[in-house]
Amino acid sequence: MLRHRPFRCFYLTLPLTAALAGLSGCADRPDLSGRVAPVDTTQPWPNLLSSQMISAAPPLDEAGTEAAMALAGRAAALAARGRTLSKTPVLTQAERARLMAALARAGAPS
Predict the structure, then answer these.
(1) Which of the residues 41, 57, 59, 91 could staple to 96 if both were Cys, CB 3.0 to 4.6 A apart?
(2) How far is C-alpha 33 from the chain's CA centre?
(3) Cα–Cα distance list, 35 to 29, 30, 32, 46, 75 (Å)
(4) What number of other Cβ atoms are within 10 A of residue 40's Cβ?
(5) Per-residue pLDDT averaged across 52-71, rounded?
(6) 11-41 pLDDT, tens per residue?
(7) Are 110 and 100 in contact (CB under 8 A)?
(8) What is the largest CA-CA distance in the chain?
């Protein structure tokens, strides 16, 4: 009969966690000097925004509306082009027959 050992996993992970923590202390710190922007101490602190200001709808401007209409027109043109391309066959009848014959010779399912 097998006995249930609920803390066996704990006894295995405890030494591994301790070894990992000990070895991580020996690692060099990464050089982040080129990745972190320096703080300008002469600038004032930024203002915090309230949740009402964050959730409020942005004001509509003419440039945003213009860009949205241009994107909608482009999307419609691409959809029309896609419909046109899906109606035209990719292979001619001769190319299709040649490929089907090659598949039949290879014994591949068609």
Answers:
(1) 91
(2) 27
(3) 14, 11, 5, 21, 38
(4) 6
(5) 82
(6) 778 888 888 888 888 888 877 777 777 778 8
(7) yes
(8) 79
